[in-house]
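Box S1 | Example of a co-folding query
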Amino acid sequence: MIGDVRGQLDAELDAIRESGTFKSERTITSPQGPHVTIAGRDGDVINLCANDYLGLANHPEVVAAAHEALDRWGFGVASVRFICGTLELHEQLEAALTSFLGTEETILYPSCFDANGGLFETLLTDEDAVISDALNHASIIDGIRLCKAKRLRYANGDMHELELRLKEAEGSRRVLIASDGVFSMDGYIADLPAICDLAERHGALVMVDDSHAVGVLGAHGRGSPEHHGVAERIDIVTGTLGKALGGGGGGYTSGRREIVQLLRQRSRPYLFSNSITPAVAAGSLRSLELLSASTELVDRLRSNTRLFRSLMADTPLEVLPGEGPIVPVMIGEEQRLGPITAAAFEEGLHVVGFSYPVVPLGTARIRTQVSAAHREDDLRFAADVFARVAGGRAP
Ligand code: PLP
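Box S1 (continued) | Returned holo structure for pyridoxal-5'-phosphate
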């Protein structure tokens, strides 16, 4: 019986509204892409907030592969993998990911949130330690919460602190360092060579969540390990199929054979949840094939990113430095976020404000994301809008 609880929850929701951190959703009425239409608004807007880094979410070949899979394999799998939910398509996609990432073996999950949720408690017990970057994604934080290992944390990218934590972890049976490859709210790239050096010196395993780097970083889009030339030194890579690789959804853990084999036996989100559908598996596989066949999309993403970052540097707004396509436009106080994003939207830009609890209080921002599918005039238009909105309406 809901009773008094309804009133209590309403009060909580009011408090969220008053703090300026209430998140409302715009309804998209077109396929995902660099231009979208939005319910209640005439004409299209430039989309600067999708994770569709390569423009594959509505790529004709990806859509065709998904259609064919629907016809050949049907709609659903109606089972977890170990009962009767393993299709040839899942195995093909796992093999394609292994070969693309240059790892030993890969296991698919319903999402990367689940890949991270099912990793730590499978590998680590109370005899072990896990050391996590303070800016790691929520799914790593939650995954670590589920395991009984000693939990240690270091400030974002602070290698001195990481070394101190490694010393604190001495005597543990296993030590695992966990880091995002690209930190999703700031766009910073983790210093994987330094992490690997420290891990090797202290006998620790290294895990990287490359959700925002796969298809993005590295000459072939193989992610942050390729970008830094350290692929062979990383033990575990998790990632998503829900961003650059077609955006259909799903995730994976890839890396050392024995780790992946143990996950297949023990990892709870793998054992107790359906895997991805045939259409999603086939669309993701086609995305990987496109990416493996040519660096054209990755190259275009890189040149679009350089252009947008240089255009934004000429606006009065502060943009976090970096070289990746996550370009956070810093606003600061939560209360300023709504008016600025609304003004940008009025002028034809679909951008979204990020505030607490997604980012720390006082660091509200508009996270813009560049895609290979943006045209040069899209990016020029967007930077012009930001310049106007910052000059005219922001305090
Ligand atoms: N890890 C990182 C770094 C992410 O940014 C995200 C998505 O926001 C995830 C994991 C979760 O990915 P998925 O949407 O596949 O659950």
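Residues 240 and 265 are 21 Å apart (CA to CA). The chain has two domains: 21-50+295-389, 60-293.
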